[in-house]
Amino acid sequence: MSKVKKRIKPTKEQAQEFNRRLDAVVKAGHTSNLYCDCELCQALAEQAEFMGYRTDSTIKRPSNTWGRRKQVYKRKRQIDAVKMANLAGQGLTSVEIGGKMHRSKGYISKIAKEFDIKIFTKKER
Length: 125
What we know:
Elements: H1 12-28, H2 39-51, H3 64-89, H4 94-101, H5 105-115
């Protein structure tokens, strides 16, 4: 069995240094940037590793897989919006459009709101 490294409680000075570096990062405005490689963020990451809060001080970049998946998702939604606009132009309701596209009524209404597509109801025909 591998031995787990036990985290030691930081001293008062280490905690103060960590809080000072954290305040500097917040003051710089890098709170929502998870993959920042500036000096302040790197120093904070190294301090966190030193104190045992993290296991790796290098800030890793996200893989390209997630960017690719996001692009594919966006593209599919655009294709669905075009198909939906064509079917809505024929005067179909959202239930009929969902049946032809094999999508749910909720997805159809969500895409219609996002792309400003007017879908008729049975009363408006």
